[in-house]
Each structure stands twice: as C-alpha cells, then as structure tokens.
Amino acid sequence: MIFLVYRQYYVGFGCGGMAKVETVITDRSDIDRGCAWLAQTCPRYAAILPGLGPIPLRLRADGFDRLLAAIVSQQVSVASANAIWARVDGAGMADPAAILAASDDDLRACGLSRQKIRYARALAAADIDYNALRDMPTSDIIKTLTQVSGIGVWTAEIYAMFSLGRADVFAPGDLALQEAARILYDLPKRPTERELRALASAWSPWRAVAARVLWAYYKQVKEREGIT
C-alpha cells in the first residue's frame, strides 16, 4: 500500500467556525501525488498516465491582470488573444485604475470589442481583494468572481485551478475536457457540463490534476489524428 502525503491549507471558515481544509498545488510533487492517487483509484487513468509523460504544472500568477487576460481571450484564437493582450499590456492597461481612466477609444485601440470593454470596466470596478481570494474556500472564490459581468463559471474555475492552485476544482464546461472524458471512458457521446461534473466527483480530492491529465490526453489523441 502506498501512503500519499500532500499539502493542505485551512481556508475560510465553515459551520461552527471550523476551518475547511483544502489541498493546494504548489509544485511538481503535488501533481505527481495526484497522478498516483488517480492511477490507484481509476484503471482508465492508470492505463493512460504512463504514455503521457510528465503532466504540466501549469501554475501562473494571480491578480487583476490574469482575469483581464482571460476576458481578452474569450471567443478568439490563441494567436489573436496573445496579440491583443500584448497591446493591452504595452499600453499600460493591465491595471484597474488605468482601465477606468481610459476612454473607449483608448481601449478599442488595444483591440478590445465593445463587449470586452464593458467587461474590463466591470472587472476594474469590482475592487476584488485578490489577496483575500487566496484564503477563501473554492466555492466562495467561484461565487465572488462570477458576480462580475464577463466572468463565467469556467473562467472562475480556471482561475482557481491555475492562479490559486486549488487541487479539487474542475472545469466541466471545457469542451476539450468533455471530449477527452468521452474518449477515455468510451462514452457514446460527449458528456454535458452537468454529466461531466457528476463524473468528476469520483476524482476528488484531485480533480484539478485529473483536468491536467485529460488535457494532456486530449492533446495526445489529437496529435495522433494529425490535428494540432
């Protein structure tokens, strides 16, 4: 029997003032522990993990600019998102005060659409305490972020997963995760967001690692099919 030890943090307070324990991914060893747990728990993960190589850590910084970058990338290609973000950042607009002070023309010159200008201003005006988010339960993080116009559940879950390192968050609305799960479990059709959320409950407390594995698996499958 293999005993797994991983980092746990007390975040927020639940009923009766008791702090809730959540696991936070901080380095590669946490990814390895999560993969080992998934392999022990699910034969299908055990079958694909050896062929995937190291699963990416994919951690990144948190804060206003990360959420603004997520808004910029909505409904555009990766190349377009990168080009627009370079203009936004280069113009000094990756800051809430700058966004609020800028004219619509200034923001349009950076490549933002009318809708994204509205979303960027909503995020800047929300005055989110990003330091406080680090200590919140994941459910409260999602609730806080989705109150801002332009930030949906998927964006909030991705932020919690990659910018805050939460180990037990998943993004079942992601089409690549849905398709990877369909292939892995040989399902007759791609699961809906609700169906995948239910399926992913079996991967707790390492759902964020399961997501990383599924993304890597999806990439591998598409490369084999000649789709990049």
Summarize the structure in words:
With 228 residues, the chain is mainly α. The chain folds into 2 domains: 8-58 and 168-224, Endonuclease Iii, domain 2, CATH 1.10.1670; 64-163, Endonuclease III, domain 1. It has helices at residues 28-41, 43-52, 64-72, 78-90, 96-101, 104-109, 114-126, 130-133, 138-146, 153-163, 175-184, 193-200, 207-224, and strands at residues 8-11, 20-23.
Question: Which short descriptors sum up this protein?
Answer:
single chain, 228 residues, mainly alpha, Endonuclease Iii, domain 2, Endonuclease III, domain 1, 2 domains, two-stranded antiparallel ribbon, 13 helices, globular, disordered N terminus
Annotation field: number of helices: 13
Strand runs, count: 2
Main sheet specs: 2 strands, antiparallel
CATH C-level name of the largest domain: Mainly Alpha
Uncertain regions spanning at least 5 consecutive residues:
1-6, 13-18
Side by side, the strands of the main sheet go: 1-2
Q: Tell me the number of structural domains.
A: 2
Distance between the termini: 39 Å
Category by helix and strand content: mainly alpha
* Rg, nearest Å: 19 Å
The general outline is: globular
Mean pLDDT: 91
Query: Secondary-structure element sequence?
Result: EEHHHHHHHHHHHHH
What is the percentage of strand-forming residues? Answer: under 5%
Question: Helicity range of the residues?
Answer: 55-70%
What is the CATH topology assignment of the largest domain? Endonuclease Iii, domain 2
Architecture of the largest domain, CATH level 2? Orthogonal Bundle
